[in-house]
Amino acid sequence: MSVCTQLDYQYMARAIRLAEQGLYTTSPNPRVGCVIVNEDKVVGEGFHIKAGGPHAERHALVDAGELAKGACVYVTLEPCSHTGRTSPCADALIAAGVTRVVVGMVDPNPKVSGRGIEKLRQAGIQVVENCLTDACEKLNPGFIKRMQLGKPYVRLKLAASLDGRTAMQSGESQWITSADARRDVQTYRARSCAIISGAGTVLADNPSLNVRISDLNFEYLGEVRQPVRVVIDNQLRLSNELKLFSLPSPVYLVANKKRSGDWPPHVEMLELSQTGQHIDLEECLVELAKREINEVWVEGGAALAGAFMQAGLVDELIIYQAPIFMGENTRGLLDMPNITELKQAVRWQFESHTRVGQDLKLILRAL
Ligand code: AOF
Ligand code: ZN
């Protein structure tokens, strides 16, 4: 079993940087980067831009041309062995005459899952596995979770005051956090395949739940990919005049019963079962994964946030904390059942803390 050299790590790091350029555009496909090196010189680079388009390896092979012969290829995800929207990259690498392939991680797609690596080895190519695997996995938390568990990766966004309050008694919550934090939220919306909100928040704030290009601090490659908007509306409270229905990207209205009314064609009804007081959110996530949703951004009120937390469906918590106090008669962050002993408290782990404008941004993961 060959191991990675210091140079291998450097080139793989470069492939990861390339893959990151597809952060906002590749879904439902994974973000993948590729670097081709011949005699210690980078001769080809590429990354996946858009589903249906060429894979990272193809772009890099075109870039390298004849110089791919005898070269070493660094790719963040195992080269594919199947014919999907495009033909197998493993075959293209073999045909180009590369002699060594360094792979960041095995493809979790059951259609590939080791077969790409096997194909390369059978053609006499030396394959080195698991180079910077953790960093490669971080590129695609949603794609990996969908392939392995049939569910999307869930980020829950919360905005809080210093005293942990999230809205006024009336439900008013715009704007606790600063414009910088709201711009940061836009980047999460942009990388997500779906935004989930609750009917209460939609009725209180009348949001568009879309990505506003002018608020992003990066340039898009190609057209903007708007996430699907999902609204949990079990009591059928929403009407078609709300702002979110006037935008063309799909809206899924989730309830446990049939809904009548005159809805535009981009609005789809998802009829799901109910567990206790709430819609079965796990079933909702499974339905979204079936529709190739990789990363989900949950942005709603305390009821929806509490329901996701209680069901244990949150992979990552993003809390923006503003330097204000809101006082007693305001709403808490999460509607959760009362607990009587501290040992019943759900514990999370801080992953990072940064300043975003005037606010603190905390990222946490379940223990
Ligand atoms: C990508 N980009 O750079 C690589 C991928 O639908 P297709 O034909 O584009 O195939 C998608 C699958 O190909 C994807 O699920 C993954 O398993 C594999 N590798 N995909 O979109 C890439 N290298
Ligand atoms: Zn491929």
Automatic annotation (TrEMBL):
Entry-linked Gene3D superfamilies: Cytidine Deaminase, domain 2, Dihydrofolate Reductase, subunit A
Matches recorded under SUPFAM superfamilies: Cytidine deaminase-like, Dihydrofolate reductase-like
Pathway(s): Cofactor biosynthesis; riboflavin biosynthesis; 5-amino-6-(D-ribitylamino)uracil from GTP: step 3/4; Cofactor biosynthesis; riboflavin biosynthesis; 5-amino-6-(D-ribitylamino)uracil from GTP: step 2/4
Cofactor stoichiometry and binding remark: Binds 1 zinc ion.
Domain CMP/dCMP-type deaminase: 6-128
Keywords: Hydrolase, Metal-binding, Multifunctional enzyme, NADP, Oxidoreductase, Riboflavin biosynthesis, Zinc
PROSITE patterns documented for this protein: CYT_DCMP_DEAMINASES_1, CYT_DCMP_DEAMINASES_2
Cofactor section: Zn(2+)
InterPro entries documented for this protein: APOBEC/CMP_deaminase_Zn-bd, CMP_dCMP_dom, Cytidine_deaminase-like, DHFR-like_dom_sf, Eubact_RibD, RibD_C, RibDG_C, Riboflavin_Biosynth_HTPR
Keyword Lipid metabolism: no
EC number: 3.5.4.26, 1.1.1.193
GO function terms (MF aspect): 5-amino-6-(5-phosphoribosylamino)uracil reductase activity; diaminohydroxyphosphoribosylaminopyrimidine deaminase activity
Xref: NCBIfam families: eubact_ribD, ribD_Cterm
Family the UniProt entry places it in: In the N-terminal section; belongs to the cytidine and deoxycytidylate deaminase family. In the C-terminal section; belongs to the HTP reductase family.
Alphabetical list of PANTHER family matching this protein: 2,5-DIAMINO-6-RIBOSYLAMINO-4(3H)-PYRIMIDINONE 5'-PHOSPHATE REDUCTASE (PTHR38011:SF7), DIHYDROFOLATE REDUCTASE FAMILY PROTEIN (AFU_ORTHOLOGUE AFUA_8G06820) (PTHR38011)
Job of this protein: Converts 2,5-diamino-6-(ribosylamino)-4(3h)-pyrimidinone 5'-phosphate into 5-amino-6-(ribosylamino)-2,4(1h,3h)-pyrimidinedione 5'-phosphate.
Protein name per its UniProtKB record: Riboflavin biosynthesis protein RibD
Source organism: Catenovulum sediminis
Record gene name: ribD
